[in-house]
Amino acid sequence: MRILYQLLAVLFMVLQGVAGQHFFPRPADPCVLQNGLCFPGICRRPYYWIGTCSNGGSCCVKYVKV
What we know:
The chain is built from 2 helices and 3 strands; from the N terminus they run ααβββ.
C-alpha cells in the first residue's frame, strides 16, 4: 500500500513538469524555415518562388543581389 503513495507522488511530479508543454507541437512550416512568405497565386517582383505553402499558396523569397 505504501508503494501506491510513492507512485502517486511520482505521477504528480511528472504531470507538473508536462503541464506547460504542448502535447501536439505544430510542425514547422518549411516556407518560414527558408525565410519565405506565403502569397496567394504567384510570386510577383521582387520575390521569386521557392516552394508551396501548406495552404496551397506560393512560398516566395525576396530577391537579394549579392
